[in-house]
Each structure stands twice: as structure tokens, then as C-alpha cells.
Specification:
The complex is a heterodimer. By secondary structure, chain A is α+β, with helices and mostly antiparallel strands. Chain A has seven helices and five strands; from the N terminus they run ααααβαββααββ. By secondary structure, chain B is mostly helical. Chain B is built from ten helices and no strands. Chain B starts with a helix and ends with a helix. The chains are: A alpha+beta, B mainly alpha.
């Protein structure tokens, strides 16, 4: 009888201990999963907040560009045009040789200033993009860049891409502008090829040039640098568009590849 | 078939340890914080191999008298297990911080010494020793879970510590009722004692599986 009692108590003891421990472990695992879910939600909220901040910064930057472009075009441009009008009131044949040379130089500089102001205000404004789409805006921008024959530019853009979200396209355009400007400033390139492909709801933009370029590590380093404001802006826009950017060194040059998801 | 299954279970204390040792041999695991577990696996493998070998072949191979009783080896295995896992918990700074964790293994070793001098024979199954092992290691295990529950750490499922400690918790919890009176049961109810030891062996396989999973988690990290 005592033996049966011992057997019974040991078996019950094992069962009870097992039940207790398994229950405790289940509670522990459920609690940890809840904690993980909570932390995931917090992280998601932080990311959302960060995206909202970036979006606000990008939007205010765009507004500021527009304001500057309009001021340049409507006010500075108007003053310069008015100055030119006043210039035309001068009769060069009544001036002596020295005065005529000063007049010619002044007129040349004024024309140059009008051209520059127009160029800058068009660059800052996104009118072409809004009216003709991203491809045309990029083509127009690169044509202007390649005009002085120091840099030969070629574009090969996917005609299948059409604008669905203008703000998204403005961000892509600004990134292209910033990257091409950087190439102009730092790379010492002679040739630049910009191509785009639309595949599997992904727009890929590749900028290839034959000059000096950044590596991915350098980009990661510079975008946290005070001087790397342009690269930081690029990164912000990439985060906003949920895309990717890669800097690659190739045998005959350097390539920057941007991939952005687009809606079907 | 049943006989083969029994045979596999009888030898499980030795072969189950080959699982974590195999992972150590073939996977590049980060073992910097798992040294006590590795020592436990290696020493226990040798001890349990000797235990099972002497039990199975003491008559067939006409082994010397000293190998006829494996209970001394079981006591040594318990000591090794407790001290190794205490060292493992000490690395995790559990259950106390400061110098107290360093004293606890010494206190346990002192207890074991006093137990075998005054209370139990070293040549017999040490009920108190095994019981102390279960209680101490369960307290250590619970302190780990409580610390995790109190902390912000959420994803513990990828840490080796979680798997090893969970295996140890299951092993010690199942064996607590077995170790309480196993010495007497093995004398008076031999058949039941063998069946009971099979339960211990299954729990030991589970412990080894969890240690293996912990080592794999360490290799992945």
C-alpha cells in the first residue's frame, strides 16, 4: 500500500511540476511576444513620425524654392528687364568711343544677368515637371547641363513611366539635380549617361559618369556630415519614397543607382 | 522494437550530449559566454558514458568491483552540473550582482562536503545533493525569467541563454520529485526506479536538445 502511495505521489509530483513549469513558460512567452509587439508598434510610430518630419522638411524646402524662384523671376527679373528697357533709351551713336565700350559691356552683363536669373528660377521651379512630366524635366535639365560642351550628357529614359504623384516626381527630380550637380562640381567627368527603367513596379534611375565618384561607405559617412547637406537631403527623400540608393565603382567610371517603388 | 527503444533510452545520457558537442564541433558558435555549458557537456559525456558502460557491461566484461556501482558517478555528475550551471548564471550576473554570486558555488560545494561527511554516503545515491541541485538551479532559472520580465528586453528567443535556461528549467522541474527520494526507491522498488530513471532520461534528452538549440542560436548570432 505504501509503495503504491509513493509511486502515486511521485507521478503526481512530476505531473504537477511539469504543468506548473509549462504554464509559467507559456505565460512568459506570451508576455515576451506582447512586449515585442509593443516595441514593434513604438518603432513603427517613430518611423512614421520621422517620415512626417522628413515630408514636412521636403515640402517646406520645395515651397521655399518656389518662393525664391518667383521672387527672382517676378521681382529681380522685372527690375533687370526694366533696366534693359532704360538701357535701350540710350543712343550709342551719340556716345564717344570710351562711353560706347562701357555701354556695350554693361548691356552684355545685363543680358547675362537676365539669362542667369531665368536659368536659376527655372531650376528652382518645377513648372516643366508639372506640365510635361519627370522624363521631360530630366531631359531638359541634362540638355542645359550639357550645353557648354564640357560635359557630354546622354539620356535614355523609359517612356513607359508616367507621373502619378507630382510630389514624388519632384523628389526624384531634385535627387537627380543634386547628384548631377555634385558630379559637375566634384567628379571632373567628360561623359554622363542617365537612364531609367520601369520594371515590376520599380523605377530604376542609373546615373553613370566617367569621373571620380563616391563609394557607398563614403556616402554613408558624408550624409551625417555637416557639409554633406545635399546628400542628407537625398537620403531624406529616399526614406520618404521608401526607395534605395547605391553608389558603385565600375571599371570605366562610377554609377549611382536609385530604385523607387511606384504604384502599378 | 521495444527492446531497441529501451536500449536507446538507457544510453541516452551519453548520446544526447553528442548533440551539443556535435554543434560545437561543426558550427562556428560564439562560445565566449558559454564555456561552463561546454565544460558541463564534455565532463558529463565522459561521466555518463562510464555510468552507462559500467551498468551495461559490468558482468559481461567482468569489470572490477569499483565499476559495479555507478552511484558515485551520478553524485559527481550532479556536482558538475550544479557548479557548471552556477558558473553559467554567474556570467549572466544572476541571481545577485556584486561578489555574492562568486560565494554561492563555494557554499554549495561546502554543503555537498558536509552532506557526504555527516548525512549521506558518497557511495550511495545522494538524495540531498540532487535535491539541493534542483532547488538551487530552479531558483537561478526563475531569477532569469523574472529579470527578463522586469526588463525591456523583448526578443530573447534568439539568445542562447533563453534556450539553455528553459531546457534546464524543464529538466530540474521534472526531476525534483524523482530526486527527492530516489536513493530509497532504488533500494526498495527496483523496477519502478528503472522506469522512473527513464523519465529522467527523457528530461535529460530535452535538456540536451535545448542546449543544442542555444548553441545554434549562438552560431547564428
Amino acid at each position: 500500500m505504501q509503495e503504491i502511495d509513493i509511486r502515486y505521489s511521485i507521478i503526481v509530483g512530476i505531473a504537477v511540476m511539469l504543468l506548473l513549469i509549462v504554464s509559467f513558460l507559456l505565460v512568459f512567452i506570451i508576455n515576451q511576444r506582447k512586449k515585442m509587439e509593443y516595441q514593434r508598434q513604438i518603432q513603427q510610430m517613430n518611423e512614421q513620425q520621422q517620415n512626417q518630419l522628413i515630408e514636412a522638411a521636403v515640402r517646406s524646402e520645395e515651397l521655399e524654392r518656389h518662393r525664391i524662384a518667383e521672387t527672382l523671376h517676378d521681382e529681380v527679373g522685372a527690375i533687370l528687364s526694366s533696366s534693359k528697357l532704360h538701357f535701350t533709351g540710350i543712343r550709342p551713336e551719340q556716345l564717344n568711343e570710351k562711353e560706347r565700350a562701357v555701354y556695350e559691356k554693361g548691356k552684355l552683363l545685363l543680358d547675362d544677368a537676365i539669362q542667369q536669373v531665368r536659368g536659376i528660377s527655372h531650376n528652382l521651379h518645377s513648372n516643366i515637371l508639372k506640365e510635361f512630366g519627370l522624363n521631360e524635366a530630366i531631359r531638359h535639365f541634362l540638355d542645359k547641363v550639357g550645353k557648354d560642351e564640357l560635359l557630354k550628357t546622354t539620356t535614355n529614359l523609359d517612356p513607359g513611366y508616367t507621373t502619378q504623384n507630382t510630389e514624388k516626381d519632384i523628389s526624384i527630380y531634385r535627387m537627380v539635380q543634386e547628384l548631377v550637380n555634385n558630379i559637375l562640381k566634384h567628379a571632373g567627368s567628360r561623359e554622363l549617361l542617365l537612364s531609367s527603367t520601369l520594371q515590376d513596379n520599380q523605377l530604376s534611375i542609373n546615373i553613370f559618369h566617367d569621373g571620380r565618384g563616391l563609394t557607398q561607405d563614403m556616402f554613408e559617412k558624408f550624409r551625417f556630415n555637416k557639409e554633406g547637406l545635399g546628400l542628407k537631403n537625398i537620403q531624406n527623400r529616399i526614406i520618404l519614397l521608401k526607395g534605395n540608393i547605391h553608389f558603385m565603382a565600375e571599371p570605366d567610371g562610377n554609377k549611382v543607382s536609385i530604385t523607387i517603388p511606384v504604384n502599378p | 522494437m521495444l527492446k531497441v527503444a529501451h536500449e536507446i533510452l538507457d544510453w541516452s545520457e551519453a548520446w544526447a550530449l553528442l548533440l551539443p558537442l556535435g554543434v560545437l564541433a561543426f558550427k562556428k558558435a560564439d562560445t565566449s559566454r558559454l564555456k561552463p555549458v561546454i565544460v558541463f557537456s564534455l565532463v558529463s559525456f565522459v561521466l555518463y558514458f562510464l555510468i552507462d558502460f559500467s551498468w551495461k557491461f559490468k558482468y559481461d566484461l567482468n569489470l572490477p568491483e569499483v565499476f559495479h556501482d555507478n552511484r558515485i558517478l551520478y553524485n559527481i555528475a550532479s556536482l558538475v552540473r550544479t557548479l557548471c550551471f552556477m558558473a553559467f548564471f554567474n556570467q549572466l550576473r544572476l541571481p545577485f550582482k556584486g561578489k555574492a554570486p562568486l560565494l554561492l558555488p563555494a557554499v554549495f560545494a561546502g554543503f555537498a562536503l558536509l552532506d557526504f561527511i555527516f548525512l549521506e554516503k558518497f557511495t550511495l545515491f545522494g538524495n540531498y545533493l540532487h535535491l539541493a541541485e534542483c532547488i538551487i538551479l530552479l531558483v537561478y532559472c526563475m531569477s532569469y525569467y523574472i529579470r527578463i520580465l522586469k526588463s525591456d528586453q523583448a526578443d530573447v528567443f534568439h539568445t542562447p541563454a533563453f534556450w539553455i535556461i528553459t531546457g534546464l528549467t524543464l529538466y530540474e522541474a521534472v526531476n525534483l520529485p524523482i530526486f527527492m527520494n530516489y536513493g530509497n526507491i532504488s533500494e526498495s522498488m527496483k523496477k519502478f526506479a528503472i522506469d522512473l530513471w527513464s523519465v529522467h532520461n527523457i528530461a535529460f534528452i530535452v535538456l540536451c536538445l535545448f542546449i543544442t538549440r542555444g548553441l545554434l542560436a549562438s552560431a547564428r548570432n
